[in-house]
Write a structure and sequence with these properties.
heterodimer, A: 258 residues, alpha+beta, Ubiquitin-like (UB roll), Fumarate Reductase Iron-sulfur Protein, Chain B, domain 2, 2 domains, 5-stranded mixed sheet, two-stranded antiparallel ribbon, 8 helices, elongated, B: 637 residues, Flavocytochrome C3, Chain A, domain 1, Methane Monooxygenase Hydroxylase, Chain G, domain 1, 5-stranded parallel sheet, 17 helices, 16% strand, globular
Chain lengths: 258, 637
């Protein structure tokens, strides 16, 4: 296959960027999208030019490091697929492809296609956990978890923290990411003690990090490589409302059972 | 240098208990006076850092990724072992211990393995309490499945994403401590050297990968949890960033390297598709529970698999190993696959592959049950190959996956440098010459949650440490050395890319030091690797500068280390004149072609001591004694 690529090049966080056009001949349909970038970079380096900065690590769709916007879609045209798992067979000979970084006020660009998603870590640090020091756990089977609950929790827990939801959202909202973590932990019996504190703290940090609000556009759900449903945002909003409304003892978690 | 394993005396079931009582403690009020550096945030590093912070230590954590949650533990699919005996099928600590020692082909330390089996049960409890959504029965109890190399069901799992869920548990515990101010997190920061003062590990020199700034961080002890070195083979299942740099630089400062030749080749990878291949993807071994492995009985049979009748198929694992069948350990399954492909019975366009067929399981259990168990793996396979494994059998081929070798550590997980601890895949300890499935996650978390946090206190409470700040002369000296090396890499401006050197090295390793090794093939590598290294340092091209985000420069530093390390790996393989586990020497095999150990001469750990540039390293020996598991030839027939 022969393809034309328009790739966003930007020297650094404060530099202005622009699209640069590259021709790719002899593209093997079995290549992954990142392997195409690899091949292009090898060519650029050999010609004495700077390669395209582009992040990836596991290249099997689970670490969440990769992610670029391909023809306007975070992670590209194929559903339920990260950039690293997108293979060139989804494109046609002669296609033109634009490649941009994830763009959002809360994800400043570092270089070319690489952005800083550190805000996600700050949100988790503010409450995205169950507080249980090592050694304090009861026997694993002492806490029965109905299969339905466990499965639903796992649906939410699959989030890889890639940030595609934010990049796709016209408001730059991180609510699918936060909603998934709130649901993963809040559905499980182990997560009840901190359930309402957790949602409040995480949402506060999210708001303070420069993410926008949710207006139910649904783009996030459409581009999520792990198919995390938007229902989790509704669930988070219910928990948040309860957390704010319920008259809770000072500093305490607990509250209703939801 | 002397190797002191510091294994406690007494009967094996009592050693860890006794040791925990004998160890000196740091009192709770004093813990906050100590600072510990942890490099790497996978299962081992993440869990260790979180646990030490919970205990009250100040912890500085470093990782090269943009966030600690990306560490490659996240990609582990299949599961984690624990001797819970929830399946009521006769499992016990003793049996997990026995299986692991035997699976490791009698090249692991009994005392370490026993402790691992004991701790395995606590890990599951801890992870459940953190909210890891393990698979459940309808009644709410945890489910187990079986895995290669064992005959009981002791593996806990969360769909095909067990590593992800366990890592997120450790990551969340770590981030909680970041929020509480006990952990200072340094993402996008790569360790490039280790600072020794009075012979003790007191800090690290790092490069900020965004700004390029070189700086030093000091502490009272240093923990390396930097993973394995499978990327020495270029194509492996490891993430692109995985490297040997941290433990290699520690080696050059005096941390002996244990059994570097023990590498694991996993039988169920997706075969490569062409020259552009940048990494290989694993299909979880758990698939061997329901998939049947076969090749056509006839050479060069190019018919489509569904048209080959049962009688003309060779289910070679079931045939050769009737009692374990498709569940033989990884090394055995990998060599068997290579053997049938070498005979010309391999499948796929280039004949490098065997079928992993689910047709019988789908007939027996229904497509929905199979989708429930392995759905995400099947989807991943389809995404990569464009083939639907519910309809046509998967094609699989062995791939480098894990490295049992690594920094030599004693029973306390401390290396030969006082104050330098090495945990998880980065150390050599528990898997001997071959790791069993679902044991890596167990070891990483055992080291991090339940072993290191105790043993590091024992060290800190007994040493006198002078104050060392980042203005110490040693810090400045090492920073200047790193600067110089960076300048050198950037100034060569040669003709070949870093990646082309890495690929060439990987091919040498796969061809001459992979599933089969021989005196001649290893000598070829010992000849070729130094030449390639020389060419690298005179002909590599690294664009850009050192004062910016420069991914080629990062890669160049890692490949430079692989070009040194692989020579030691091949030397270790050459000196180990026996076959054991993943280390298979063509000269040493039984008449049936199985690995032939030499317990008389090689029932030991080989640990290599650095003796300076260009000088042959010393091979030190730690004898292994087997008092609880009888030395026997592994048989899975």
């Amino acid at each position: 296959m022969k393809l034309t690529l328009h790739v966003w090049r930007q020297k650094g966080p404060h530099a202005s960027g622009q699209f640069v056009t590259y021709q790719a001949a002899d593209v093997n349909p079995d290549m992954s999208f990142l392997e195409l970038i690899d091949v292009l970079n090898e060519r650029l380096i050999t010609k004495g030019e700077e390669p395209i900065a582009c992040e990836s690590d596991c290249r099997e769709g689970i670490c969440g490091a990769c992610g670029v916007v391909i023809n306007g879609m975070p992670h590209g045209p194929r559903q339920s697929t990260t950039t690293c798992q997108l293979h060139m067979r989804v494109f046609k000979d002669g296609d033109e492809i634009t490649v941009e970084p994830f763009r959002s006020a809360a994800f400043p660009i570092i270089k070319d296609l690489v952005c800083d998603r550190g805000a996600f870590d700050r949100i988790i640090a503010s409450g995205g956990f169950i507080s249980c020091n090592t050694g304090t756990a009861p026997d694993g089977n002492a806490i029965p978890v109905p299969k339905k609950v466990s499965d639903r929790s796992m649906d939410a827990a699959q989030c890889i923290g890639c940030g595609a939801c934010v990049a796709s959202c016209p408001n730059g909202s991180a609510m699918l990411f936060v909603g998934a973590k709130v649901a993963h932990l809040g559905l499980l019996p182990q997560g009840q003690a901190e359930r309402y504190d957790r949602v409040q703290k995480m949402v506060e940090t999210m708001d303070a990090s420069g993410f926008g609000a949710c207006t139910n556009t649904g783009e996030c759900e459409a581009v999520c490589p792990k198919d995390i449903p938007i229902d989790f945002i509704a669930q988070m909003n219910r928990d948040l409302l309860k957390a704010v409304m319920i008259d809770r003892p000072a500093g305490g978690g607990g509250g209703g059972t939801g | 240098m002397e190797l002191k394993s510091n294994i406690p005396a007494g009967p094996i079931e009592k050693k860890w208990d006794k040791h925990r009582f004998d160890m000196k403690l740091v009192n709770p009020a004093n813990k906050r006076k100590y600072t510990v550096i942890v490099v790497g945030t996978g299962l081992a590093g993440g869990s260790a850092a979180a646990t030490m912070a919970e205990l009250g230590y100040n912890v500085k954590v470093f990782c090269f990724q943009d966030t600690p949650r990306r560490a490659h533990s996240i990609a582990a699919q299949g599961g984690i072992n624990a001797a819970k005996n929830y399946a009521n099928d006769g499992d016990s600590v003793q049996r997990l211990f026995y299986d692991t020692v035997k699976g490791g082909d009698f090249r692991a330390r009994e005392a370490n393995v026993y402790r691992l089996a004991q701790i395995s049960v606590n890990i599951i409890d801890q992870c459940v309490a953190q909210g890891v959504p393990f698979a459940r029965e309808y009644g709410g109890a945890l489910i187990n499945r079986s895995f290669g190399g064992t005959q009981v069901s002791r593996t806990f799992y969360a769909r095909g994403q067990t590593g992800q869920q366990l890592l997120l548990g450790a990551y969340q515990a770590l981030m909680r401590q970041v929020g509480l101010g006990k952990v200072k997190m340094h993402p996008r920061t790569e360790m490039l050297d280790i600072i020794l003062v009075n012979g003790q590990a007191r800090g690290i020199v790092v490069r900020d990968l965004v700004t390029g700034r070189i700086s030093s961080h000091t502490a009272d002890a240093v923990v390396l949890a930097t993973g394995g070195y499978s990327n020495a083979f270029y194509l492996s299942t490891n993430a692109k960033g995985c490297n040997v740099t941290a433990i290699w630089r520690a080696y050059k400062r005096g941390a002996a390297m244990g059994n570097p030749c023990y590498t694991q080749i996993h039988p169920t990878g997706i075969p490569p598709s062409g020259e552009h291949q940048s990494k290989l993807t694993l299909m979880s071994e758990s698939l061997r529970n329901d998939g049947r492995i076969w090749v056509p009985a006839k050479h060069g049979d190019k018919r489509s698999p569904d048209t080959i009748p049962d009688g003309e198929r060779d289910y070679y694992l079931e045939r050769r190993y009737p009692s374990f069948g498709n569940l033989v350990p990884r090394d055995v399954a990998s060599r068997a696959a290579k053997a049938v492909c070498d005979e010309g019975r391999g499948v796929g366009a280039i004949g490098l592959g065997v079928y992993l067929d689910f047709a019988d399981a789908i007939k027996r259990l229904g497509e929905n049950t199979i989708r429930d168990k392995y759905g995400n793996l099947f989807d991943m396979y389809e995404r990569i190959t464009g083939e639907n494994p519910y309809k046509v059998p998967m094609r699989i081929y062995p791939v480098v996956h894990y490295t049992m070798g690594g920094t030599w550590v004693d029973y306390n997980l401390m290396s030969t440098i006082p104050g330098l601890f090495v945990i998880g895949e980065a150390n050599f300890s528990d898997h001997g010459a071959n790791r069993l499935g679902a044991s890596a996650l167990m070891q990483g978390l055992a080291d991090g949650y339940f072993i290191l946090p105790y043993t590091i206190g024992n060290y800190l409470s007994q040493v006198k440490l002078e104050r060392v700040g980042d203005d110490h002369a040693e810090c400045k000296k090492l920073e200047a050395e790193i600067d110089e090396k960076t300048r050198k890499l950037l100034s060569i401006k040669g003709k070949r890319t870093v990646d082309s050197f890495h690929r060439e090295l990987g091919k040498l390793m796969w061809d001459n030091c992979g599933m089969l090794r021989s005196d001649a093939s290893l000598k070829t590598n010992l000849d070729r690797i130094p030449q390639l290294r020389e060419e690298f340092w005179s002909n590599v091209v690294v664009p850009g500068t050192g004062e910016e985000f420069n991914q080629t420069l990062e890669h160049a530093g890692r490949v430079a280390d692989f070009l040194e390390f692989t020579e030691l790996l091949c030397l270790d393989a050459l000196e180990r004149k026996e076959s054991c586990g993943g280390h298979y020497r063509e000269e040493y095999k039984t008449p049936e072609g199985e690995a032939l150990r030499d317990d008389e001469n090689f029932a030991h750990v080989a640990a290599w001591e650095y003796t300076g540039p260009g000088s042959k390293p010393n091979r030190l020996v730690e004898p292994l004694t087997f008092e609880n598991v009888h030395l026997a030839q592994r048989s899975y027939k």
